[in-house]
Amino acid sequence: xxxxxxxxxxxxxxxDKLADNLTGLTSRAALDTSTLDDIEEAxxxxxxxxEASHRIREAIARQKFDRLDExxxxxxxxxxxxxxxxxxxxxxxxxxxxxxxxxxVIGVNGSGKTTTIGKLGQWLTEQDYGxxxxxxxxxxxxxxxxxxxxxxxxxxxxxxxxxGADPAGLVFDGVKQATxxxxxxxxxxxxxxxxxxxxxxxELSKIRRxxxxxxxxxxxxxxxxxxxxxxxxxxxxxxxxxxxxxxxGLIMTKLDGTARGGVLVAAAERFGLPxxxxxxxxxxxxxxxxxxxxxxxxIAGLPPE
Length: 305
Ligand SMILES: Nc1nc2c(ncn2[C@@H]2O[C@H](COP(=O)(O)OP(=O)(O)OP(=O)(O)O)[C@@H](O)[C@H]2O)c(=O)[nH]1
Fold this sequence. Notes:
It is a peripheral membrane protein. This protein is an alpha/beta fold. It has helices at residues 3-10, 12-22, 33-44, 50-62, 70-85, 113-126, 141-154, 167-181, 197-214, 232-245, 262-271, 292-300; strands at 101-106, 131-134, 158-159, 185-189, 221-227, 249-253, 275-279, 287-288.
């Protein structure tokens, strides 16, 4: 299956629900207020979120259609979703000088953090950046092992400590090693214990403090990894991590299979944070640039171009 097919799979739950909820609306005699209300409700029920749904409704209302056939409605939905997404589609840039550009990767356990770091490492390596992975989730031995496996898979070195080691110290050593070896990007895994906000905050601010001693601009990026299958929960995670961790951008994972992809639109409208990339599978090549037009069309149930 091509990645685009998988991506469409990730939006099929949202798209099917939307199509069901829109059934019959376009056959009504006029595009009046109650039909617009129903369209807005259909959008909200498809995980797109109240803010984005309202914006789309207003856009349809402004166009002053008398009637709108199904194809016309799908086209305008695709366009409006694309308009919401376009401003946040910003591929990750490696701009930090002196090197390394330091990226902290945060998110709750199981969101796909470690897998995303592997995929990100592969993506950077393909662009000829030298990459060092840092196993900063020292809370669980399995997380350290998992990152090492990814390092081997993509041919990137991994700096790790023992289970329970101080992550800030490890990150410090990571920057030193990257500097000594002329490595461009240091990608740091972190523990995702959201159930203990103050501990998370403490740990992240300690990492920042230590990094700041080496380079005041580091970390250059703080990427929050979100699991698209968790719907509304993913949005709550953005709220919490934004307050505690100074998130610079998002990567949404698991946008294949059973994702509730509409949540991506809700996140874009509500937070306006850059979406650096999306994950559409479990292998190294499954991190993809975020394409607002393809996503708009997938949600609206239009065929790919
Ligand atoms: N289908 C699919 N599965 C994914 C994707 N990204 C990650 N996964 C799977 O999601 C599960 C959790 O991913 P991890 O990378 O271990 O998540 P984590 O956030 O690092 O979790 P901890 O190591 O427990 O902190 C694994 O089974 C991954 O293979 C994706 O884009 N698509």
